[in-house]
Specification:
34% of the residues lie in helices and 24% in strands. The chain is α+β, with helices and mostly antiparallel strands and 203 residues long. A 4-stranded antiparallel beta sheet has the order 1-2-3-4. Strands 5-6-7 form a 3-stranded antiparallel beta sheet. A two-stranded antiparallel ribbon has the order 8-9. A hairpin with a 2-residue loop joins strand 2 and strand 3. The protein is elongated, with a radius of gyration of 20 Å. The relative contact order is 0.15.
Length: 203
C-alpha cells in the first residue's frame, strides 16, 4: 500500500470544488532530471578525471577507491531521482498548480494561478522542458525541501519548478491560457527570450 493511496484524486489532497477541474497532470522524467538537475555527465567526467589523476600521481588502489566512492555517490543520487519520479505528480487546474512530492517527507504545494508573477520555459530537447514559476512574496517551503522542483540557486526566494516534463511547450501553453483567464498577462516577443515567447507566462 502506498502513502498516496488515500488521495481522493491522484496528486491532490482533497476533492476539487465544483468550479475547478483538472487541465493536465504529469510527472518528471528521472533521466532528464539526472542530466539537468544533477548534471550527471559533468559529475561522471569529474569523478573519472580526478580518479585517473590520483591513480597516476599516488597509487592505483587509491584512484580505484575514489572512482568507486564517486560512482556510488552518483548512483545514490540517481536512485533518489528515480524515487522522485515515482512520487511526484504535477497537476494544473483552472485555478492552481499543485505539486505533490516527497521521497522521505511528503508534501503537497498549492500554487494559485492568481499568485504567479512570472513563468519561464526552458527547453531540454526531445520536447522535454521545465517551467519555473515566480510567485508573489516568498514561498514558505524551504529550498532544500523543494529540490529538485526548484530553480538552481534560488535559495532565498525559491522558485517552484515543473521540472523535466514531456510536451513542455504544450503544458506551458495550457498554463498560459489558464492563468490569462484569472489575471491580465501578455507574452513577450520572441526577441526577448531564448526559448519561447513569454511575459510572465509562456505563450
Amino acid at each position: 500500500m502506498s502513502e498516496y493511496d488515500s488521495e481522493p484524486i491522484p496528486g491532490l489532497p482533497e476533492e476539487l470544488p465544483q468550479d475547478e477541474y483538472i487541465i493536465w497532470q504529469g510527472s518528471p522524467d528521472w533521466k532528464v532530471m539526472a542530466k539537468t538537475a544533477l548534471h550527471i555527465r559533468i559529475a561522471l567526467a569529474f569523478v573519472i578525471v580526478f580518479s585517473v589523476i590520483t591513480a597516476t600521481q599516488t597509487s592505483l588502489s587509491t584512484g580505484l577507491v575514489l572512482l568507486g566512492v564517486g560512482a556510488l555517490s552518483i548512483g545514490i543520487f540517481v536512485s533518489y531521482l528515480v524515487l522522485v519520479e515515482r512520487t511526484t505528480l504535477y497537476t494544473l487546474t483552472n485555478k492552481r498548480v499543485v505539486l505533490r512530492s516527497g521521497v522521505a517527507l511528503n508534501y503537497c504545494l498549492n500554487l494559485p494561478l492568481t499568485r504567479i508573477e512570472a513563468a519561464d520555459l526552458k527547453l531540454l530537447g526531445d520536447d522535454f522542458g521545465s517551467i519555473a514559476l515566480q510567485l508573489e512574496g516568498t514561498p514558505k517551503i524551504g529550498y532544500f525541501m523543494l529540490w529538485p522542483h526548484a530553480t538552481s540557486l534560488s535559495i532565498i526566494r525559491p522558485r517552484p519548478m515543473i521540472r523535466a516534463i514531456a510536451e513542455a511547450p504544450k503544458v506551458a501553453r495550457m498554463l498560459f491560457e489558464a492563468t490569462s483567464k484569472l489575471q491580465d498577462i501578455a507574452p513577450k516577443t520572441e526577441a526577448e527570450t531564448d526559448n519561447v515567447p513569454l511575459k510572465g507566462l509562456p505563450a
